[in-house]
Amino acid sequence: MTYHGLTRAKSTVAALLCASILGLAACGPSESNFPGQPTGQGGPNNPTGKERESIFGEDGLKLFGGAADEENVGGSGIGVNSFLWRASLDTISFMPLASADPFGGVIITDWYQDPKAAGERFKVTVYILDKRLRADGVKVAVFRQNKGEDGDWVDAAVGNTTGLQIENAILVRARQLRINTIEAQEQN
At CB < 8 A and 24+ separation, what contacts does 98-103 make? Predict the structure, then answer.
């Protein structure tokens, strides 16, 4: 490398270093405000000083329950409707659980083989979609496999109404749980 090339490289590095320092210095706090921006007592992140709406809603973030309002009866510290959650677990209790996430509202069973139906097994995934007890608050996906001639499990079609029947059974159980809870509260 020639003397001229080395000098040019040094000056380029020096220029980049100066630009970086100036750029970082510009990131510091500033007392100036943009034209047309209101100046209040709220600070740089809230210049008007007015209270802003939280992303967690009017009541804030409640992790482990809190005061229950009348509309959300049964919405305990879990992330979904507690009646739907318990009803789902009750309805599919005969199947082994692989995973249960009460905050996300997902229950996944492991493969279940009915002793009466050799060569066939089922797996169920329950999605609880709402914190309210509603008919569209639960969705069920059913998977079925048959044992092939070579001994391997092969995916098979599931009846169109199988998932819907399980959803209905969950909803009936959830309503029973809610009625029992309301009756117990009225007696106290």
Answer: 102/78, 103/78, 103/79
